[in-house]
Amino acid sequence: MSSMSPRFSLAVRSYGVNPDIDRHSFTQLVLPISGTLTLDIAGQGRDLEPSWAAFVDTGTGHATMSRRPNRSLILDLETGAVPPDMRERLAHRPFVELPPQAIRLVDYMRMVAEDGDPAPPLVAHWVPLLLDTLVRQPPRPASRLAALRAAIEAAPGSPWTTGAMADHAAVSVSRLHALFRAELDTTPRAWLAGVRLDRVREWLRHTDRPIAEIAFAAGYADQSALTRAMRRATGLTPAAYRRQNRETRPRNP
């Protein structure tokens, strides 16, 4: 069993094709921010994607894996940080779809975590908001956008016009807009732009791929188009973002 976590600990992690099997002496929230995870918690399994959360109770065996690029926020909590009634409810129903307000909070948490270790008082402020959101959400039907979102995240560089997205989801363009507004509180184009920028930032941090190649792979017309999008979103060019956020690791051969 893993050692006791700090009262609140937030990190960004990725998982591979080999199942990561674990059992903790603390509770944990798994908050996917890109890609899809396959998560089994005490025999309850689910493919977990962004806009969903998973609760892993103290001492509960679980296994996590994925066959595609992915990242998740992992929030470790001392057992005493979760009220007993909340623990019981979440342990019974560990997979919960997040409402739009919580999705925006998770996205903000992601940005802060990517900039460095968040201050404990800040994380402590987020925890009750997230827990309250999770226990208040009733079971929901499967997302009508799940297959479309998975397809786009697997191939963000494909020519995803609004019409192509509607065709993939087997709905009209107007219905597509309504679904995005209801489920994600955004538009299809804005969500697509966010997915592409997230993938670009991931590649800039973790690979040596040329920036022009990254631009094309993420669906931008050219490197200049990517540079304009990055400046609007981060205030940095792709090259400057790479220098500022580069991990210390061996270079590709």
TrEMBL record:
<dbReference type="GO" id="GO:0003700">
    <property type="term" value="F:DNA-binding transcription factor activity"/>
</dbReference>
<dbReference type="InterPro" id="IPR018060">
    <property type="entry name" value="HTH_AraC"/>
</dbReference>
<keyword id="KW-0804">Transcription</keyword>
<dbReference type="InterPro" id="IPR050204">
    <property type="entry name" value="AraC_XylS_family_regulators"/>
</dbReference>
<dbReference type="Pfam" id="PF12833">
    <property type="entry name" value="HTH_18"/>
</dbReference>
<keyword id="KW-0805">Transcription regulation</keyword>
<feature type="domain" description="HTH araC/xylS-type">
    <location>
        <begin position="146"/>
        <end position="244"/>
    </location>
</feature>
<dbReference type="GO" id="GO:0043565">
    <property type="term" value="F:sequence-specific DNA binding"/>
</dbReference>
<protein>
    <submittedName>
        <fullName>HTH-type transcriptional regulator CdhR</fullName>
    </submittedName>
</protein>
<dbReference type="InterPro" id="IPR009057">
    <property type="entry name" value="Homeodomain-like_sf"/>
</dbReference>
<keyword id="KW-0238">DNA-binding</keyword>
